[in-house]
Write a structure and sequence with these properties.
Blueprint: H1 2-6, H2 8-11, H3 14-80, H4 94-115
Length: 119
């Protein structure tokens, strides 16, 4: 459009010249508005990305804590599943004692994680 202003063919009439100037001004304003809205949309996109990342961090923290709590009974069960001489293996209520001990360890770990706001 700037080249059209310089060409005499388009600007030989004063009305056409003013109309062309108005079109150029409107075009520049539209470009400026587009840049402004592009920056706004980019900022909103960054904000949404931050919120999603924050929510993901909270979910990962919860899942990690839950995995640790579930791994404690698994570790105890795997140790007592070995075919070696272990404590309480001669007692009549060994299974119950081990289950109660495992439950106590799991509850204590859950309480500690709860107080540290890992849940």
């Amino acid at each position: 459009m700037d080249k059209m202003v310089q060409a005499e063919h388009y600007t030989n009439n004063e009305e056409n010249k003013e109309l062309l100037q108005d079109v150029i001004i409107e075009n520049k304003q539209a470009i400026a508005m587009t840049d402004t809205y592009t920056q706004i949309v980019s900022g909103m996109s960054d904000t949404f990305s931050s919120v999603i990342a924050n929510n993901l961090n909270g979910v990962m923290k919860f899942l990690t804590s839950f995995t640790i709590i579930l791994s404690l009974p698994t570790i105890v069960a795997s140790i007592y599943g070995m075919n070696v001489k272990l404590p309480f293996s001669d007692q009549k209520y060994a299974f119950g004692l081990i289950m109660v001990g495992t439950l106590i360890i799991t509850i204590l770990t859950t309480i500690i994680f709860w107080r540290k706001k890992y849940f």
